[in-house]
Structure formats: structure tokens, C-alpha cells
Amino acid sequence: MSSSTGLIANPGDEIKVDQTHSYVILGPGLLQDGPKRVVATRAGILHFKKPHTYWLESHVKKYWPARGDCVIGCILQKVGDNFRVNIWGPEPATLSAFAFEGATKRNRPNLKPGDLLYCQIISAHTAMEAEVVCVNSYGRRGSLGVLESDTSTLITLPLEVIHMLLSKECPLLTTLGKKIQYELAIGQNGKVWVNGSTIEKTMQICTALKACTKLSIAQIRDMCQRIAGS
């Protein structure tokens, strides 16, 4: 379970984190600046999750790429052996044609403008475009890759709702899964790919997700009880 430290940070502030572990995971809003210095890249409240994960949470409307984030991307164009990908951040990201499981010079994905991807950011700096891949650290696809289905759609949710849906405290996705068969790719950039067994089921999932924009965790639990009892 994550918790707020109560510390309010501004861009450029140095953040004190426990670096007695062999490594520390820095999430959105934090940047490693030197061997033992961590600074805030935006204003927000510092959050901590055991054993050693830190991030800044803030009510921002614009997504800022952070290393390790999983995001929904849309292919814009191909440039040589790379693709430019819209990740709905300040700038498009770069995706190598070889950043797919099993990709070679003779076997590369045939992506077209408009294709959707679930990808992970491996490099993010304010002075250059972010870099994304569709493989995990073991070179496997895992849950990453091209998103395609005739019954799917893409919706946009506030970033704070995305964080809530990804929290283990939120019961909505588990409850919906007991009632409706569906697939979901939640991008930390505010985009969610929804795929139900039919268009009608997809729209039902979208309606439930959009309802979360005005509900607290307690209210979501109440909604889940109503869904479970229906």
C-alpha cells in the first residue's frame, strides 16, 4: 500500500530518499541528478511505497514522460529504422523497429500511421525525445505490443484516475472482470484501450471507467457492490 509523506515539492527541489537499498525506484515527477541526488521535475506531493519506490502525485492535465512508465502510443510516421510515436506528451517518442520481440532486419513489424501500441518508456529527458520499446527487460513482449481489435476503443481519463485504477486499493477492474469479459491496457499517459467481447460490452466498461472521474475509492467500492449484486 502506498502512502503520502506529506512533503510538497516544487520543480528543482532536492528530495531526500532512503538510499540504503541497493537501488531506489523513482516514478513520475522525480529525476536522478547524480549518484545520490534526486530532484523534483514538477510540483506535487511525495508518495512512497515499500520497500523503495517514490513518486510525486499532482493534479496535472499534461502528461510528462518518465522512465518506466507504460503508455499507449499512436504511430505517426516511419523514419528510417525508427517510428515516431504520439504518447500525448510534450514531444513524440522514438520507437526502434527492432524494439519488438523477435524483430530482425528481415522480420520487422509492419506498422502504419494510426496503429496503437502499448509500450514502455526506457529513456525520458527534458532536452530530448522519449524512447519507447515493446519488449520487457528480458526481451519478451509480455503485455506490450500492438493493440488491435474490431470491438476496441480508446478513451482518455484524468491522470489521477489512472493512478487510482492502477492502485491495488481500487476494486473496480476485478469486480468488472467477474461480470464482463474484457481486455484493458491502461496507459500512465491518461489513455486507456478498452476491448470487450462486443461493442456493447466495450461501451459498458467505458461507462464504468468514466464514472470514476467523480468518485472516491469508497464510492467506487459502493458502485462495485451494486455491480456485483446486479
Automatic annotation (TrEMBL):
Main location group: cytoplasm
Residue span(s) of domain K Homology: 154-198
Keywords on record: Cytoplasm, Exosome, Nucleus, RNA-binding, rRNA processing
Residues in Exosome complex exonuclease Rrp40 N-terminal domain copies: 24-59
One matching Pfam family: Rrp40_N
GO BP terms in the entry: CUT catabolic process; exonucleolytic trimming to generate mature 3'-end of 5.8S rRNA from tricistronic rRNA transcript (SSU-rRNA, 5.8S rRNA, LSU-rRNA); nuclear polyadenylation-dependent rRNA catabolic process; poly(A)-dependent snoRNA 3'-end processing; regulation of gene expression; TRAMP-dependent tRNA surveillance pathway; U4 snRNA 3'-end processing
Coiled coil: none
Gene3D superfamilies given in the database record: 2.40.50.100, K Homology domain, type 1, Nucleic acid-binding proteins
The keyword Nucleus is assigned to this record: yes
Listed GO CC annotations: cytoplasmic exosome (RNase complex); nuclear exosome (RNase complex); nucleolus
Annotated compartments: Cytoplasm; Nucleus, Nucleolus
Keyword Nucleotide-binding in annotation: no
Molecular functions (GO terms): RNA binding
Family: Belongs to the RRP40 family.
UniProt protein name: Ribosomal RNA-processing protein 40
Provenance organism: Varroa destructor (Honeybee mite)
